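Question (not urgent): is this output format expected?
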Amino acid sequence: MRTSAVAMLLVAALVACRTTPGAGPATPRFIVTAMPIDVGVVSTKLCVGVDPDDAHGVWWWQPGASGCGTRSTGPGVFRAEQAAVTSRHGTLPISVTFRIQLKRAPDSGLPSFADVHLSVEAHAIRAAASGVRVATARRADLELPESPPQ
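Got this back:
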């Protein structure tokens, strides 16, 4: 009797722990540049994170010592101003636009911001202004450690 009870508990535990066929770990939420990208409108390369499920989900930061896995700005990553994330029916490419502030003298007569246009493609992000393409990575969060560039 005791053996059959243990066997029943074992079977119940195996059934409870079984995953649904085809169900794997969830895809991490953010698509990020694996290395800094020249967006074509500012003099420094930036790291960019995109939440493809958020119509305004764009963040940027300046890379740290180990590239886009760390940041040299902060106290955290910056939520992009006037960001827009659009795709057709959730497919690639994903169009990403945002505005970035420029360091200009107020009386220079030059614009104090620039518009960044990116395209998220299969395993890459491309900057429209520079034509540069960099690989992407997936991250569950954008909590990046601060690390001054070398």
